[in-house]
Amino acid sequence: MSYYKTDKNKILNKMNDYLNRRQVKFKSDGDLIEAKTLVFNLQKEVSTAEYDERKDLITAERKMKRWFSKAKDNYPKKTYLMELFRDTKLNSFEQDIALLLMGSTMGFGITIHDICDIQEFLNNKTGNSLKVVQSLAEDSRLINSGLVVVDESDLISHNNVTINIDFVNPMLKKKYKSMTVWKVKNQQELVLKMKELSLCFEERADVLDNNNYGQLFGTRRSDKESKMNKLNSKIIRQEKLMNKTVDLHPKWRLCELLQEKMQLEEKRVLIILLMQKMKFLKNYFTKLTGEEICQLVAKNPLHPLPTLRLLKANRFLRRNNYIKICNYPTNSKLREDEDFLNKASYELSSELLSRLKIKGIREEKKKSRLPKMKMSQLILYPEVKDALLSAIAQSKNKDTIFDDWGFSETIMYGNAVTLLFGGPPGVGKTACAEALAHKLNKRILVTDYSKIQNCFVGGTEKNIVETFVTATTENAVLFWDEADAMFYDRDSADKN
Fold it and tell me: Which of 115, 394, 403, 467 has a CA-to-CA distance to 82 between 20 and 30 Å?
């Protein structure tokens, strides 16, 4: 038996101290927990008492329960403990489990080691033992909120259970304040505070990414899952502070945005993309893919599909043009399947950034430039000049060739104009590309392997895609310098 063997008379005397108070109310959160611990002890005494003693104990238990219920009704709703229960949306039974664990941690006459101990204290009704197991299951509110940590063993009833000490520490201080707001004077300081929240998301993603976190749910819980629960609880607290701060400053542009009716994860997507734009994330120099966003902000990162669907064109964020896909042209026909949404990269739209007017975010300069050379400045062999003029004609008359003449029915893809320039340095390859761009009234985007190569897995491929997109969106001729370093023939290529 792992609870303290309490003296029955001592329990009854303690009960009388509560019942004889002039006012039916608790002095503090700790007083509430201690009173509830007394109720648990009375329940335990009733279940183990001899027949001739049980009647008096049942009467005492009922009196204490009635007193506790009235005192709780009179207790302020804005105390730390009441706000904690409200934020985590615990029902009365789950609150009892949390209070039992808090009483054990704070040394109020109860010691809890495992689920079996909890069942012994809450077995006053039929079916409560099963409810305890269900309340501490993997996807329960107590676990998902990070309030309770469970370490699994071979027998469910022997699973070790502890309260997250981060939630208890504020009540152990002599003077503590309930959850308040971030102390910020302007919108810029609010953005800097949001950095703390984004760091929690990144840390959680790192935990998930290490050593196949998904395997942890199959057998035995580990320190990593304990860390995961603590991070979830920290995220909940930070979001609580942020929401209260936002409510205090409704006229700030960012607060106005976050007060719009949207799902929690949609709000998280906006915050994480803003942090990426502010270069607060570790890998700020690469765009975030749908898969990376889900890993960062999903309520349950192991089941990211509901969050991924929020990135579709018909959902709130893209429907209102708050975010956009940055590795595909806006006028292309997008395939809204799961694979596409995972691989696509996302960023805040320029319209939203203009609306927010956050300092530190500069409008990105165009990567392409105006061409410097003209066709009249080139000295070319006749056959080279004819080839260039032919390419110009094909580009200018693309609609006629493919739509009016019907070539689009036979050439389904790869219908852009592509030229391969060869020769030693200085013969005029770049000059010809610039002259073509000038003749077509387009900008020119020059890139090479050094600008594309990325040390992160998938980074190089992502940069290649974004280069083509940039050329399309900026209406530029794309010139690959030293293309032999990037592209291979089919016989020698390792990749497609």
Answer: 115
Tell me the residue type at 172. Answer: L
**In this predicted structure, what is the pLDDT of residue 287?**
78
For the stretch 367-420, pLDDT in tens is 788 898 898 898 888 898 888 889 888 888 887 887 778 777 777 776 788 888
Alpha helices in 122-176 (DSSP H): 128-135, 141-144, 165-172
Residue pair 148/164 in contact (Cβ under 8 Å)? The answer is yes
DSSP code, position 369: B
Strand partners, 265: none
What is the DSSP annotation of 286-352?
SPEEHHHHHHHH-SSTTS-HHHHHTTSTTSHHHHTTSEEESSS-TTS----SHHHHHH-EEEE-HHH
CA distance 150 to 323: 38
Question: Cα(first)–Cα(last) distance of the chain, in Å?
Answer: 66
Specify the 3-state DSSP secondary structure of 114: strand
- Is the model's pTM score more than 0.90? no
Which SS3 state, helix, strand or coil, does residue 252 take?
Answer: coil
Does pLDDT of 277 surpass 80?
yes
In this structure, the strands spanning 476-480 and 443-447 are: parallel
Q: Could you tell me the two tokens for 6?
A: 């309490």
**pLDDT bracket for residue 270 (50, 70, 90):** very high
d(CA 392, CA 433): 11
Q: Which two tokens stand for residue 105?
A: 């941690």
CA atoms within 13 A on the CB side of 208: 22
Closest CA to 155 of 101, 220, 225, 98: 220
- 131-164 residues labelled b (16+ CB within 10 A) or e (exposed): bbeebbeeebebbbbbbbbbbbeeeeeebebbbb
pLDDT at 329: 54
Residue-level pLDDT at 146: 78
Q: To 5 degrees, how large is the angle CA 284–CA 290–CA 296?
A: 65
Element (H, E) at 353: helix 350-356
Cβ proximity of 313 and 336 under 8 Å: yes
Distances in Å between the Cα of 480 and the Cα atoms of 369, 419, 421 are 14, 10, 10
Confidence (pLDDT) at 215? 42
Q: At what angle do helices 165-172 and 29-48 cross, to 10 degrees?
A: 120
pLDDT tens, position by position, 421-442: 888 888 888 899 999 999 999 9
CB 312 within 8 A of CB 318: yes
Give percent of the chain with pLDDT exceeding 90. Answer: 17
Q: How far is residue 429's CA from residue 482's CA, in Å, rounded to a whole number? A: 10
**Closest-CA residue to 200 (of 168, 167, 221, 228):** 228
